[in-house]
């Protein structure tokens, strides 16, 4: 066991070690050394007492003149008042409930005191200042050292405040800094001008100035980027070593028959991406490709052509969707696009076709048996479904390709279980309609090759988006409903989206809310907000009020599967004018006749989610309109988000905004937001150059030394980054 793996109890004692472990997940000396300050407080320049200005950060050299402990009246606690002087002026220091400091702070003692100047009872004071007591002969040199340094402020807990953490870190640096290894190859450090890791750790915790802090951060940023990219490069190398059945397109097969029937030509982007996918399918190792594209860019068509290419080789393809609504929509649209090519063996079916099976958890027993039999026998070349496809009883004759739609909605175990159904590892195509910045793709999806569809097919109409400030300008909301009626009057259809379903009971205490039931968020000034608007109540009010006389229906995830499918079929057939729904329609739903969407309480949705939602309109020849209804005031951050969505249709720009607001999350964890991050210094949004260079360097190193035998310190750093859960996540892909 290396020195940095030493349990903290050996360094700081059992009690402190338990607090560090329980509150901050710090268990070893290495954990503590890599627990970096989240910010620094400037002590300020050494200042004479008569030159102090309120709200400035200052450091003063003074002698203690008077110390007084004053108990609070009528309640527990006390206030320690210390008066210091530089011989010309006086300054008050105050410490609350810290009477024990009387042992340190005695009249006649000289010290350096640092803090922010405040004003109390028209008297300048420093509240709970940082200080260092010094001997007279030390005064001048100590003042320079003390005044010039930055005070680190650490991520802390109630039981372990920042100043105590600083003492623990100081102990670790003093005892173990010499034990720190060097994970980065020497030639890489030299080429990029990086300081040694021990020096970086000392400077990140003990910087004298901002220049030293930046030098340390630059080195540590490289460590995080490079070690992560080595992990991903190893994963890519391992994938390339696995065997897979090559799936080369066969002339005269179902793919050629399908292409001949297409009523339009592929975009240049679709042709390019299809070529990339077909090249991967033809190799003897599994394809691992991420297909990302703007809303409405034609990802489903690209995926279908890949699936048909696999069918032509005698294999089968699976499309895994996150919801029953989306699975049914995919099944409906794919069978419509294929026509009799999806009816092999049936009356009127094409001899060169195949079957397309649908499997969801709520299907009837007879339909389920038929789907399972078609998949096991190989009659169904394409299977579409939800998590039901993952069950043990589901078998395939020859699974060659797995397509995962909106992969971020699936757990690792679910994807892995489906891929394990092939005798040899099947090819994998991951699709997402959420545009991903290049740097995020290189980290979160760094073991996948990436294809991007950013060109909309011809015939797609532009979508105009507007914010409707319902409280400030109620007449705008009235006009919104008039616009819905006008679109319906032209023969079009509309969506109204609400954050909540509305038929649920109050969740029990401690019970987690369903995905379609968002948490309530505080108002602009922290006041309690009303509950989010709900589908059930909104639909009823609209049908009786501004949309009276129109055919209004509801759709949400808690409806019976038959009811959901019935509503979507009738909406697609034009038998429903207005569909009031939750975000169940967010992805994949394709009704070209829908031209307007009204999103209620739009501020309660994320930026990328709003972009996905509005992609449901403007899918035909008529222009699309998206109205973002909000009660939030014009100056609020929530309105700024809505203005950003209204201001651009560039999903990549919006995804950056979304990530900046949600935080980057743990790039190796299953959740992509709101969790403790393994990246402490590196920003996947801002450090594109470092990430791209680290990826290239890591790929070269792993190609030359796959097991990192010549780089034992790098191997150790990799093991530290990839704890058991993250290693399993990366292993399963």
From TrEMBL:
Report the coiled-coil segments. none
Keyword DNA repair assigned: yes
Q: Which reaction does it catalyse?
A: ATP + H2O = ADP + phosphate + H(+); Couples ATP hydrolysis with the unwinding of duplex DNA by translocating in the 3'-5' direction
Using the record's annotation, list all stretches that form the Helicase C-terminal domain: 476-660
Q: Which residues form the Helicase ATP-binding domain?
A: 280-453
Alphabetized InterPro entries for the sequence: ATP-dep_DNA_helicase_RecG (IPR004609), DEAD/DEAH_box_helicase_dom (IPR011545), Helicase_ATP-bd (IPR014001), Helicase_C-like (IPR001650), NA-bd_OB-fold (IPR012340), P-loop_NTPase (IPR027417), RecG/Mfd (IPR047112), RecG_dom3_C (IPR045562)
Q: List the EC numbers from the record.
A: 5.6.2.4
Keywords recorded for this protein, A-Z: ATP-binding, DNA damage, DNA recombination, DNA repair, DNA-binding, Helicase, Hydrolase, Isomerase, Nucleotide-binding
Which top EC class is given?
A: isomerase
Region annotation (Disordered) maps to 505-529
| Any one GO MF annotation of this record | helicase activity
Which Pfam family is one of those matched by this entry?
DEAD
Query: What Gene3D superfamilies does its record include?
Result: Nucleic acid-binding proteins, P-loop containing nucleotide triphosphate hydrolases
Function statement:
Plays a critical role in recombination and DNA repair. Helps process Holliday junction intermediates to mature products by catalyzing branch migration. Has replication fork regression activity, unwinds stalled or blocked replication forks to make a HJ that can be resolved. Has a DNA unwinding activity characteristic of a DNA helicase with 3'-5' polarity.
Q: What is stated as this protein's family in its record?
A: Belongs to the helicase family. RecG subfamily.
Q: Identify this protein by name.
A: ATP-dependent DNA helicase RecG
Question: In which organism is this protein found?
Answer: Kitasatospora saccharophila
**The organism's taxonomic lineage, starting at the top:** Bacteria, Bacillati, Actinomycetota, Actinomycetes, Kitasatosporales
Q: What gene name does this entry carry?
A: recG
């Amino acid at each position: 066991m290396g020195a940095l793996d030493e349990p903290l109890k050996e360094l700081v004692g059992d009690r402190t070690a338990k607090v560090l472990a329980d509150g901050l997940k710090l268990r070893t000396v290495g954990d503590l050394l890599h627990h970096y300050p989240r910010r620094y407080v400037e002590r300020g320049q050494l200042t004479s007492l008569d030159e102090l200005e309120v709200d400035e950060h200052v450091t003063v050299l003074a002698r203690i003149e008077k110390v007084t402990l004053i108990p609070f009246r009528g309640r527990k606690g006390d206030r320690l008042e210390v008066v210091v002087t530089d011989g010309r002026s006086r300054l008050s220091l105050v410490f609350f409930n810290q009477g024990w400091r009387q042992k340190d702070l005695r009249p006649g003692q000289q010290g350096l005191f640092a803090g922010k100047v405040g004003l109390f009872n028209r008297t300048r004071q420093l509240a709970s200042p940082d200080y260092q007591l010094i001997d007279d002969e030390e005064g001048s040199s100590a003042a320079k050292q003390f005044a010039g340094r930055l005070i680190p402020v650490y991520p802390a807990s109630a039981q372990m405040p920042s100043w105590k953490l600083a003492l623990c870190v100081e102990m670790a640096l003093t005892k173990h800094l010499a034990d720190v290894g060097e994970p980065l190859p020497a030639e890489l450090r030299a080429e990029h001008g990086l300081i040694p890791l021990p020096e970086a750790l000392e400077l990140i915790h003990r910087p004298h100035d901002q220049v030293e802090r930046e030098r340390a951060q630059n080195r540590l940023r490289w460590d995080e980027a490079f070690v992560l990219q080595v992990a991903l490069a190893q994963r890519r190398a391992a994938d390339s070593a696995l065997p897979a059945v090559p799936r080369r397109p066969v002339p005269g097969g179902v793919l050629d028959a399908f292409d001949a029937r297409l009523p339009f030509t592929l975009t240049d982007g679709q042709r390019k991406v299809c070529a990339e996918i077909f090249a991967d399918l033809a190799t003897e190792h599994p394809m691992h490709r991420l297909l990302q594209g703007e809303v409405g860019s034609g990802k489903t068509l690209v995926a279908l052509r890949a699936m048909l290419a696999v069918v032509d080789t005698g294999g089968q393809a699976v499309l895994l969707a996150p919801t029953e609504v989306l699975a049914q929509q995919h099944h409906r649209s794919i069978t419509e696009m294929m026509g009799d090519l999806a009816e092999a063996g049936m009356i009127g079916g094409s001899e060169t076709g195949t079957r397309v099976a649908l499997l969801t958890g709520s299907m009837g027993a007879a339909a389920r048996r038929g789907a399972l039999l078609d998949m096991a026998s190989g009659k169904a070349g394409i299977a579409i479904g939800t998590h039901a496809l993952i069950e043990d009883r589901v078998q395939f004759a020859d699974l060659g390709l797995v397509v995962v739609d909106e992969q971020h909605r699936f757990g690792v175990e679910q994807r892995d279980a489906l891929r394990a159904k092939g005798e040899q590892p099947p090819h994998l195509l991951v699709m997402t309609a959420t545009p991903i910045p290049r740097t995020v793709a290189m980290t979160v999806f760094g073991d996948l090759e990436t294809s991007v569809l950013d060109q909309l097919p011809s015939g797609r109409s532009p979508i105009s988006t507007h914010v409707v400030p319902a409280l400030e300008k109620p007449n705008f909301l009235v006009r919104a409903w008039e616009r819905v009626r006008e679109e319906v009057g032209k023969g079009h259809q509309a969506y109204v989206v609400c954050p909540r379903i509305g038929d649920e009971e109050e969740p029990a205490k401690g019970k987690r809310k369903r995905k379609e039931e968002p948490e309530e968020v505080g108002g602009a000034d922290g006041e309690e907000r009303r509950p989010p608007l709900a589908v059930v109540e909104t639909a009823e009010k609209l049908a009786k009020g501004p949309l009276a006389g129109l055919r209004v229906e509801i759709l949400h995830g808690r409806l019976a599967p038959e009811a959901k499918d019935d509503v979507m079929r009738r909406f697609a057939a034009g038998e429903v004018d207005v569909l009031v729904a939750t975000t169940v329609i967010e992805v994949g739903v394709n009704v070209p006749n829908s031209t307007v969407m009204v999103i209620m309480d739009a501020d309660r949705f994320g930026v990328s989610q709003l972009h996905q939602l509005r992609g449901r309109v403007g899918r035909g020849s008529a222009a699309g309109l998206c109205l973002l209804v909000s009660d939030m005031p014009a100056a609020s951050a929530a309105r700024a988000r809505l203005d950003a969505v209204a201001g651009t249709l560039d999903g990549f720009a919006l995804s950056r905004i979304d990530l900046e607001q949600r935080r980057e999350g743990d790039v190796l964890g299953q959740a992509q937001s709101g969790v403790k991050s393994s990246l402490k210094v590196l920003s996947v949004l801002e450090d594109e150059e470092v990430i791209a260079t680290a990826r290239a360097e890591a790929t070269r190193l792993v190609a030359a030394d796959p097991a990192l035998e010549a780089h034992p310190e790098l191997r150790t750093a990799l093991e530290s980054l990839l704890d058991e859960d993250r290693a399993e996540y990366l292993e399963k892909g």
